[in-house]
Amino acid sequence: MRLSNEKFAEKLGIGARTVASWHQKPDLRPQSEMQQVLDTAYERASDAERARFAELTGDGPAVHTRPDTKEADRRLAADPHIGAALEWLDQHAYRSPGAARRAVAEQAARVDAQEAYARATRRAWVDQRAVTDALAEYYGRRHGDHGLYAGSCGDQAVNTSILTCADWLDLACELRPPHDGLTIASARPDPREVLDEHATKAAVNRLAETVAMNTRLMNAPLANRANSA
Description:
Largest sheet: 3 strands, antiparallel
Radius of gyration: 23 Å
Number of strands: 3
Helix content: 40-55%
Number of helices: 11
């Protein structure tokens, strides 16, 4: 692509040191996650860039083969919740209708399901309290009049990641009609958030893992369900 280490790293959304290490150790085999990032970069490259790549690697003419996406296409067509997510992604990434579906189907066919399950297991080892304590340590306890909400249970302190201040506490207000008295500040819709290439790629990868791991995705107003419960 005729880019510097820094520019190529920026394009991939990774560190420049990683790209530099590839030059230093050309026989190094990247991990599966990094291979997926490189595959995506290759797919989006121009024909001229692919031809130069093939010439430099001695692989002859560059041939792009589309992976078998039959199973992924079946799941995408049958699940209305994922369909809604794909439509949202097309709209906010300003892509043509169906672009997200094709990208997710191809990426899902490349996902290493075993590695994805292993990564999910490692994430599950980090419990909610560990995340909250890490946030409290990183951001600190107080910022001006605001701080993280905390409580106690016997002799044990309980931290949360909820930002609050003294004026927000002890309101003695039941969060149900007619006590809450909440009103909408503005009926005007928020301007549409535009996803850049990095965010779009992350969304595609996450949806692809959802399909490959057969994870159930819900498109529902969870906050309303919690309040009614």
